[in-house]
From TrEMBL:
Chain's role: Involved in chromosome partition. Localize to both poles of the predivisional cell following completion of DNA replication. Binds to the DNA origin of replication.
Xref: CDD domains: SPO0J_N
Biological process, per Gene Ontology: chromosome segregation
Gene3D superfamilies to which the protein is assigned, alphabetical: 1.10.10.2830, 3.90.1530.30
Family membership: Belongs to the ParB family.
GO cellular component: chromosome
Residues in ParB-like N-terminal domain copies: 31-121
Protein name: ParB family chromosome partitioning protein
GO molecular function, one term: DNA binding
Length: 287
């Protein structure tokens, strides 16, 4: 109980720091630091920087400068390590700037990594694998439980648990997910297969839906029929699969939609893997 209270307090402190760093007053209170005095964070949770997005940011920096300060912490030799804002720092270098606005905060290793992870998650800058690795590091190095992690980042416990399961996938499958060739729904489906790598390659080659992938992972040769009592309308199959995928990605659980005997009736099935997921789903349905 004491650990949870301590972590919740730390989470609130980081949230306040996030609000301060992104507030309109931040620019006025920022210090301008030479780019040469700033170093990247070697434990930055984000590993991939999209070329197209960086090019757009460089163009913006050239035209308008850096409008929002980066966040740094003092390190050895009078230099400063980036806590949040590495993309702005990189873009400033490419744009030919000599200095950049920065907020300086004395953060320890744990606080700095937590802040970087939360800031990236809130901006949707991390892919699923980067987010999962960040959770694992916070849990192993700083003693966070899954419940504490969920509390700090403002996500459900089932979300944290589902992402951590991705770390059990073979490296080849993790690479496909990180590169965007597999969705998180597909990755969770192939995890149950005897050969996740082979099934992942088939998913990409044949463009299989998440539902079809789940069926193949369970050992079936072909996807099961949508409803035992009535066949789906011929024109609705692709639309239903798209809807299933959208719903599954939103709630993090497999979803099946089956049409009934008429075009306006049917059923919606959600499969959960644990009581925690069921509790979370019931809470969400209850508002």
């Amino acid at each position: 109980m004491a650990e949870k209270k301590r972590m919740s307090g730390l989470g609130r402190g980081l949230s306040a720091l996030l609000e301060e760093a992104s507030s309109p007053a931040a620019a006025a209170s920022a210090t301008r630091l030479s780019l040469a005095d700033i170093v990247a964070n070697p434990t930055q949770p984000r590993r991939q920087f999209t070329v197209e997005a960086m090019a757009e940011l460089v163009a913006s920096v050239k035209a308008h400068g850096v409008l929002q300060p980066i966040l740094v912490r003092p390190v050895a030799d009078g230099r400063y390590e980036i806590v949040a804002g590495e993309r702005r720092w990189r873009a400033s270098q490419t744009a030919g700037l000599h200095d950049i606005p920065a907020l300086i905060k004395p953060l320890d290793d744990g606080q700095a990594f937590e802040f970087a992870l939360i800031e990236n998650i809130q901006r949707s800058d991390l892919n699923a694998m980067e987010e999962a690795r960040g959770y694992r590091r916070l849990m192993t190095e700083f003693g966070h439980t899954q419940a504490a992690m969920a509390d700090i980042i403002g996500k459900s416990r089932s979300h944290v648990a589902n992402l951590l399961r991705l770390l059990d996938l073979p490296e080849a499958v993790q690479s496909l997910l990180e590169a965007g060739e597999l969705s998180m729904g597909h990755a969770r489906a192939v995890a149950a297969a005897a050969d996740p790598v082979a099934l992942s390659q088939r998913v990409i080659k044949e463009g299989l839906s998440v539902r079809a992938t789940e069926t193949l992972a369970a050992g079936s040769k072909t996807p099961r029929p949508r409803h035992a009592l009535a066949a789906p309308a011929a024109t609705s199959d692709a639309n239903l699969e798209a809807l299933e995928l959208q719903l599954a990605e939103q709630i993090g659980m497999p979803v099946a939609v089956a049409m009934g005997g008429s075009a306006s009736s049917g059923s919606l099935t959600v499969r959960f893997d644990s009581l925690d997921q069921l509790d979370w789903l019931c809470a969400r349905l209850g508002g």
